[in-house]
Design brief:
Blueprint (H helix, E strand, L loop, with lengths): L1 E6 L4 H11 L13 E2 L2 E8 L2 E8 L12 H19 L2 E4 L5 E2 L4
Parallel strand pairs: 2-6
Antiparallel strand pairs: 1-4, 3-4, 3-5
Length: 105
C-alpha cells in the first residue's frame, strides 16, 4: 500500500493527466475530480491556498492488479487525507465517492 501527498499548484496537471490517460471517466465527472479507479485513488484539498493531491494505490509485485479491495484503499486514502489536512491546516477536502471507475479502454 502506498499513500502519498503532493503539495502545490504544480500538482494539479500531473494528476489530471494520470486520470485522463488511465481511467474511463463518465461524462458527469472530470479528471479534476477526486476519484477512485480500479488501480488507484485520488483525493484533493487546499493547503496554504494551493492545491494538494493525495494518491493511494495497492499493487501486486507485477503491478497488474490491486492487492486490497478498492473499498479498503478508499478508506485508507480518506483517513490519510483527513490526517494530512488536520496536520497542515488544509481546507476544501474532496474525497472519492463509492464508485470505482474502470481503467481506460
Amino acid at each position: 500500500m502506498s499513500l502519498t501527498g503532493w503539495y502545490g499548484d504544480w500538482t494539479v496537471e500531473p494528476f489530471e493527466l494520470l486520470l485522463g490517460a488511465n481511467v474511463d471517466i463518465p461524462d458527469d465527472h472530470s479528471p479534476r475530480d477526486a476519484l477512485l479507479s480500479d488501480n488507484f485513488g485520488r483525493a484533493k484539498a487546499r493547503c496554504d491556498g494551493e492545491a494538494a493531491n493525495f494518491l493511494a494505490n495497492s499493487y501486486t509485485q507485477d503491478a497488474t492488479r490491486s492487492v486490497l479491495p478498492m473499498s479498503d484503499v478508499r478508506d485508507l486514502l480518506d483517513g490519510f487525507t483527513a490526517d494530512q489536512a488536520e496536520r497542515r491546516g488544509c481546507t476544501d477536502l474532496e474525497l472519492p465517492g463509492p464508485t470505482v471507475h474502470p481503467g481506460a479502454p
